[in-house]
Amino acid sequence: MSYECFDVSIEDKVAHIVLSRPEKRNAMAMSFWTDLPKIIADIDDNAKARAIVISSTGPIFCAGIDLTMLSSVGGDGNKNKADYGAAFLDKVTQLQDSLSSLESCRIPVIIAIQGGCIGGGVDLVTAADIRLGTDDSYICIQEINVGMTADVGTFPRILNHMPEGIVRELAYTGRKMGSKELMKHGFYNEVYDSQEAMVVAALDMAKTIASKPPLAVYGCKRIITYARDHNTRDTLDQIGVWNMSMLIPSEMMEAMQANMQKRDGTYSDLPKRKKA
């Protein structure tokens, strides 16, 4: 299937989603927001891959929301119209849900960032499990520079990746933060000297993840996210119930034998999800 904003390929249990509008600086058109959750759901629900890599094309990763899309929100945008606020909220909720698909899917998502990651692009990358960057990459919470408060996912997630004071500085000033600072503050897992090297590393990392028992990886993702949003006691209860329900002794034995024999393990894919 072809998409306006993405190229999608799957190989060796790894899905590679590439932002593919370099002539538009990979600005997020309306089709971006509708297609992304469909792509993620298709991969996840049909167990087509065990890890996802998202990368981009051109000199920058993403310029943020396509401004031509915003002009259609709430009709002509007249702030005195009674229905403007409700229409705006409906649209924002749709955009939020689109990016939340990365967090709610069962498989890990690795994002490889080159050049600028601006506005809505920051909302996107904060929803991933792992972020890699190039030396020349940077992020910018651009919304303050256009008189807005970021509303599609940056703030509830970026605080899990960087200290609050740093986040407040970026949010209030709208300044760019480069790769060295992003690495220093823990936003990036690693920085690379070229986009090619970064994408190779991202795909290699995804292949390593794909070689592990998928249900155990899913459990890790689910519990890490749960732990972020809950206290220690609740999380201990959650992981106990999860393992009580989900541990598969045969896959544990296969994992231990594969490690001892220095070979890849053979594991079942996650079950496909049935549509209602």
For this structure, the CATH topology of the largest domain is 2-enoyl-CoA Hydratase, Chain A, domain 1
Number of domains: 2
Note the beta-strand portion. 5-15%
Could you name the CATH homologous superfamily of the largest domain? 2-enoyl-CoA Hydratase, Chain A, domain 1
Q: Largest sheet at a glance?
A: 6 strands, mixed
State the total count of DSSP E strands.
Answer: 9
| Helicity range | 40-55%
How would the global form be characterised? globular
Query: What is the typical, i.e. mean, pLDDT?
Result: 94
Instruction: List unreliable stretches of 5+ residues.
Output: none
Indicate the structural class. alpha/beta
- Indicate the radius of gyration in whole angstroms: 20 Å
Physical arrangement of strands within the biggest beta sheet: 1-2-3-4-6-9
CATH architecture of the largest domain: Alpha-Beta Complex
| H/I helix tally | 11
End-to-end distance: 23 Å
Spell the H/E element sequence: EEHEHHEEHEEHHEHEHHHH
CATH class call of the largest domain: Alpha Beta
Give an account of the 3D structure.
The chain is an alpha/beta fold. The chain folds into 2 domains: 6-210, 2-enoyl-CoA Hydratase, Chain A, domain 1, CATH 3.90.226; 214-261, Lyase 2-enoyl-coa Hydratase, Chain  A, domain 2, CATH 1.10.12. The chain has 11 helices and 9 strands. It has helices spanning 30-45, 67-70, 84-104, 120-126, 154-158, 164-173, 179-184, 195-210, 214-229, 232-246, 249-261; strands at 6-11, 14-19, 51-55, 109-113, 116-118, 130-134, 138-140, 176-178, 190-192. The model has no long low-confidence stretch (mean pLDDT 94).
